[in-house]
Each structure stands twice: as C-alpha cells, then as structure tokens.
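Aim 2 progress update. The chain analyzed this quarter is reproduced below.
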Amino acid sequence: MQADVGVFGGSGFYRLLDDVQEHRVETPYGPPSDDVAVGRVGDKRVAFLPRHGRRHTLPPHRINYRANVWAMKQLGVRWLFGPCAVGSLQPHVRPGDFVLCDQFVDRTWGRPDTFYDGPVTTHVSAADPYCPTLRTLVAQVARARDLPLHERGTVVVIQGPRFSTRAESRWFRSQGWEVINMTQYPEAHLARELGICYVNISLVTDYDVGVEGDPHRAPVTAQEVVEQFAANNAKLRELILDAIQRLPQTNDCPLCPRALDRARVG
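Predicted structure tokens:
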C-alpha cells in the first residue's frame, strides 16, 4: 500500500477520512503509534496516523517518533502534515488561532531524535526546519478560508507530560516565542532527515499557565486543551483536506528532498 500524503493526528484529532483501509506497518524502529489508515482525497492517497494512538494512550515522551516518520516514508509519503495542539505564550496569539510555525526550540531530553547513528556521520541542517513550500500553500488555503492565522511563529517544545511552571512560561514568553507544545520535536526534524516535506499547523487551545498578570485565570488543564481542540476540529480538518487537494503532482520543493546534500562526513 502506497500513499502520497501523510497526516499525523494530535490531541483530540484522531480521524481524518471516512473511507479508509487500515494497515499495520513494521519499521526497523519498532511499531508506530497505531495502524495507519489510508484513503483518498481527490487524486491523492493519504495516510493518517494518530501520534498518540487512537485512544490517546501514548504521552508525548513515550511516542515512537522514529517509527511514525519511518512508516510514512515507507509508504511513499512526500508531503507530511503535522497538526498539533499548542498553548499561547503571547497575548496576541489567541485560543482558536492557527499558527504556521517556521522555527522550533527543543527543550526535550532523552528522545531518540535521528536516523543516523553511524557509521556514516550525518549532520542534517535544521536552520529552516519546516517546509517553505508547504507553509506557503497552507497559508494560502487558510487565508482563503478566512481563518485566524499567524503565518509564522516559533514553537518551544517541552518534554511533558507536565505543563510549564509559571517561571518557565515567563522565560519562554520573554524570548518572544509564540507557542508551546510537547510533540514537534523530534517529529519535524526526523521528517527532514528523510527528505519529506513537513508542515506544522498549530491550533492554539489555551494561554500557557493562564494569562500572565491575571490572578483570576486558572492554569490550563488537559481537559480544556482537548475540548478546545475538538471545538475547532472541523476547521482544521477542512483546512488540511483543502490543502491536500491543491498539492501539485510533482514535488518541486528546493529544500526538503535535498536534506542529505553535503550532510555526510567522509
């Protein structure tokens, strides 16, 4: 079974297509988070995989990111969508907004985060970690659908499963970073290592630890995140389906498929 496009489902987003065939994919890195559901969107075959599992049994630090991304590559995926729930770090980035991140900051630890463990030493650039071609396409679709959109932003990725302390959140906010999440690293970079075009679509579910300076605003809860994500699921689903239908037949991205050019030592 082959697919042109892949989609990872995030918190509260466990289903994309109605008419699908489910496939168990074996990888050298162990099993992915769940069976992969493959169906059609127009003339594209689309593979969908909930990164936490369909029953949300995998917390962020236990996800087998390498197996998930490898499974997509093994199916032939060239374009990969990574929607996820995020908390806002800035007042102007509001719950219900969409953010197309163009940068990440990694604050995780202990996660296997490369396919290249030797013997050929490989250093893949992460200077521009998200696909510019896919970001441009999704931004065009989001504007056409009149969605509240921030066309760029930095996501700081924390280890989880706990949320931030107030001190940590103040630190992240002071750096000017827009949103916070627990799953974008190493997922995005692993896709780059395999030459897959990857776009992040962040759906803002809350203000991280509440709105700074508002003593009456309680810190966010996991239940609130899921509820907010569910409330905007239809918008996210239609955005992704519309973007998939606008993908070209050939992948002419000048960046992602060439990730290994001049990356190997020796």
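DSSP finds six helices and eleven strands in the chain. The domain at 5-258 is CATH 3.40.50.1580 (Rossmann fold). These observations will guide the mutagenesis experiments scheduled for the next reporting period.
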